[in-house]
Amino acid sequence: MTKDRTHPNGRHEHDSGQALVETALTLSLLVFTILGGADMARAFAAQLGVQNAARAGAEAWVTRAATTDAQAIAYATDELGRIAGVDSAATTITVTHTTGAGGESLANVRVQYTYRTLAPWPFVPNTLNLDKTATFRNYP
Fold first, then answer.
1. Which residues 6+ apart lie within 8 Å of 100 measured at CB?
2. How far is 93 from 27, CA to CA, in rounded Å?
3. 114 pairs with which residues across the strands?
4. CA-CA-CA-CA dihedral for 22, 28, 33, 35, to nearest 10
5. Between the chain's N and C termini, which has fewer beta carbons within 10 Å?
6. In Å, what is the CA distance from 2 to each residue of 5, 10, 114?
């Protein structure tokens, strides 16, 4: 029968390796959770940026700050460029003009952006297609 050796600090000799393994497992899980949370936060910020860009373009059109579709697209691109980690040059922005049910003139700005995660996550899609349209009424 073998006898466990005890260190002067009162711990058994075989306990030191166990603490190292537990620390390695816990730290890897912690890092995985933090990076996953950061990626989710980035996706949420990108979604809000796409929504705000569509609103900014439509608002610029109806308030006459933009008098052409190109200027409305520039307003939307500028708004999207304020979001960290979002490449506003990789977006598709379209401006259309329609007539509402009551005969009113409507300005529609659609912003499409493909979000990519920081790292390829297992069992999770690595891209997210964000697509928002803002419709504002043109006042005479």
1. 106, 137
2. 42
3. 129
4. 160
5. N
6. 9, 18, 63
Prediction pTM value: 0.80
pLDDT per residue as tens digits for the range 62-94: 999 999 999 999 999 999 999 988 998 999 999
Q: Where are the domains of the chain?
A: 15-137
Full 3-state SS string of the chain:
CCCCCECCCCCECCHHHHHHHHHHHHHHHHHHHHHHHHHHHHHHHHHHHHHHHHHHHHHHHHCCCCCCHHHHHHHHHHHHCCCCCCCHHHCEEEEEEEECCCCCEEEEEEEEEEEECCCCCCCCCCEEEEEEEEEEECCC
CB 106 within 8 A of CB 98: yes
Q: Which two tokens stand for residue 47?
A: 């979604």
